[in-house]
């Protein structure tokens, strides 16, 4: 990914945001049983740098947040938001007119076409990483993977800088599975910045409720105190860092388990009409949960959907995915806007790269990082625009190339996060939140 948005009151039955603090999160928890650990999956320059750092506290008070809709496997740009109907590489995909004159999306994205006035579509994303794991790592951390350091995620940098002090939930939450099950967290900053993983929206995280009648808060605290004593002897024998991480994991899990306001993770109190707008799918429910979490003060939420690695049967598989993502994405934007949350909530739709312009012999598209698309909305982004373009055949970027670093820096700018803030790696090397790149200023013009 807390102090409430100033214009909102907690929904009935929802937690008051002052009940769960970061100080408690990092102090209170001498932890629950092994079941408790299972509740958490572990997984610059001016004018933007110094000015953003100075305004970080203001951003905390405003409740800035980001929702990332992560399309794991790399969606085809041609069958989403950058169709090429007049070229053979377009694969025969039909288009649908959008609310922005002269802009068309691929068929199957009719709801998003109606919402185009809120969207900034970048059609000129470009990168060098064509491997799923490496590109996903880069999109999440701002760095290419190396064998010497586990970089903190951009989410960790966001949470560190702008997550409000008072919170009733973890500051960063990941919803749904993904390719390889990889979670990107605190890296060398520590496990306190790892996200809570919710496997399936609409259900409580696993093992957060003790068995009825077996444990109460006093017994939990007693067991945690005993565990700390046992850990202490190991720490004295040189296991200090291991013990600190172990206790941190248990600390986070235990406070979550003992918090009385876990109902935010369920969707039972949402009207059926709203659930229908999002769609009766795991992804739709994930997007609805993302709105609930942001409304409750969570700073960083990622909703994941796999199935985009379409080396074969590309057109049918993308159409099936679009049938889930199109209503959920558009409903999320409308819901945030209706609740007065969209101005302070950035929504990013992206995958790790794009697909080849040429369709292969199996009716699929292969890996293609040279040119793909990403979509942003809210968070101060000016909607109703397309940034950049590719050549008629989609093979190369023709106008306004935007790198992964540029995209991540732009997200930091929207959130008031200083992308040039440096952390010292375990080897003593200063590493910025995002290594390179420039803000795409057209997004905010």
From TrEMBL:
- PROSITE patterns assigned to the protein according to its UniProt record, in alphabetical order: TAT
Q: Which domain of life is it from?
A: Bacteria
Do you know which SUPFAM superfamilies this protein is assigned to?
Alkaline phosphatase-like (SSF53649)
InterPro entries under this entry? Alkaline_phosphatase_core_sf, DUF1501, TAT_signal
Q: Name one Pfam family in it.
A: DUF1501
Matching PANTHER family: BLL7424 PROTEIN (PTHR43737), DUF1501 DOMAIN-CONTAINING PROTEIN (PTHR43737:SF1)
**What name has this protein been given in UniProt?**
DUF1501 domain-containing protein
Species per Swiss-Prot/TrEMBL record = Alienimonas californiensis
